[in-house]
Amino acid sequence: MNDDQLLRYSRHILLDEIGIEGQERILASHVLIIGAGGLGSPAALYLGSAGVGRITLVDDDTVDMTNLQRQIAHTTDRVGSAKVESIRSAVQAINPGANVACVQRRADQDLLDELVPQANVVLDCTDNYRTRHLINAACVRHRIPLVAGAALRLDGQLMVIDPRDPDCACYACVFSPDAEFEEIQCSTMGVFSPVVGVIGSLQAAEALKLLAGFGHPATRRLVMFDSASQDWSSMQTNRTLDCPVCARKA
Fold it and tell me: Which of 6, 46, 42, 16 is nearest to 208 (CA)?
């Protein structure tokens, strides 16, 4: 680390859990963020400001006025711009040294199989059930840790999936990819803006813990947040032996 980095990241370095070695691991890391909206905004801002060496953003959407109530990386003057480019501008305004790559495409299996193996941690910040399962399957396939978040109305949830842990459930163990699922969008149901900030920030925190190698990742459980009552709860998640995604093949 140079002198500027020692100063910029000094409050991390002061933490015994991170120190210089942990911060160097963060600086050498690569995080893939899929989704540049309500969850991706705070996640990218915190990861970029924390010094993640390389961030790749994937999203095919553009900034809309209705996004600005909660997608805090975007601004009024960037309405109509690509969301990934908008977030890159926001991250680099905080940390000019951040290396942010933009992929303005919808995540499909081919793109995920190209990008996931290059990352140390993947963040699922999407709002699409099918895409979440594609991301989960790619992370299991390539054995890359995944931090999945979701938010709708007044509620949020967080799940950390580490395919390197033989007892860790994957997303498909908890939410069947074959389920008849009615997609509910915040454009029709609404979302309380601080909820995406809370969950996106937690996604960044879990990613940094995995990258720096400290603490206990929130694996093997589904964490749920009810902002109306300020209530946190969690349920244990068990790996499904016949899971179509992560079950061991004989």
Answer: 46
Which uninterrupted H or E stretch holds 56? strand 54-58
Tell me if residue 243 is catalytic: no
The answer to whether the CB of 125 falls within 8 A of the CB of 200 is yes
Nearest residue to 87 via CA among 118, 44, 139, 141: 44
CA triplet 14, 20, 21: central angle to 5 degrees?
A: 135
pLDDT tens-digit series, residues 153-206:
999 999 999 999 999 999 999 999 887 655 555 566 789 999 999 999 999 999
Which residue, 185, 151, 212, 218, is CA-closest to 13?
212
Q: How far apart are CA 120 and CA 217, in angstroms?
A: 14
Given 125, 168, 173, 186, the catalytic residue: 186
Per the confidence metrics, is the pTM higher than 0.90? Answer: yes
Q: What CATH class does 3-236 carry?
A: alpha beta
